[in-house]
Amino acid sequence: MEDCKVLGEEREELAYQPQPGEYFNPLNLGRIVVLDAGQRWYGIVVETIIEKGVVRRLAEIAEQAGIIIRFIQFSNVEPHDSLAKAIAFLDFSNTSVTPEETLRLVRKQPFVRSAHLIVPSYEGLLFDNYFFPLVVGKKRAVIFRRRVYESLFKGVREKFGTAGEAMLYYQGFCVGHRTCQAYREETGIEDPEALVGLGKAYFRTSGWGIIDVARISVEKGEAQVRVYESFECEAGKGSETPYGHFLRGILAGFFTNIFQKEAKAVETKCVAKGDPYCEYMIKT
Hints:
33% helix, Muramoyl-pentapeptide Carboxypeptidase, domain 2
């Protein structure tokens, strides 16, 4: 992305607006690292008051001690929250300051409510052994790496054939329908475009894919949806037929709730077959 500039009366857009199909930067959520011999990394977990200057002051402590901050992640906060939680991996390889000294200094800060040290194992494994479980909003969430969900999708197909594909579709349908209904109940939103916008946001931030709604007509009960980087279809590359039966079901269930009439989804393009994106036609 090029730098945005202000030129006279003309002002370029400062907010990042990604276009569907462009390159997307991966976000590594793994709070685990295997250290090489000689590396002295430790973890630290802090709970702080939310106020101006907190991050700057903690960064200053690390800089003055010669500590390199290798990783930092904050737990998402709600607008009314007064406290924030964060975990950081700190590199002590090139400093004589000890992790214990650093922890004591952090705890002395007036905005810090609690702080704990995470010590790597003898095998050089440093991981987050403090936070559990993962949540999105207030609901528990889990992360499946590719080898896991790829085995799930392929295993069902290999074991049950077309019946397995049908099972994936109907499982997806239930997920999509219930998800849209949950959006309605939790947010009070009823506008179809806003509900679709929520779906696009959660789909992307959950790592499932990037949705681009090319066309939607509530009156006709129709929608045309493109999915880039589909996690399901990416795992089925080389297939001679469309592969996204689970996502097809999700879209059918979601738009059934949107249209308030049963909808069906057909995948007309698929990255598993070599297309640049997956495309679904949804109709009641």
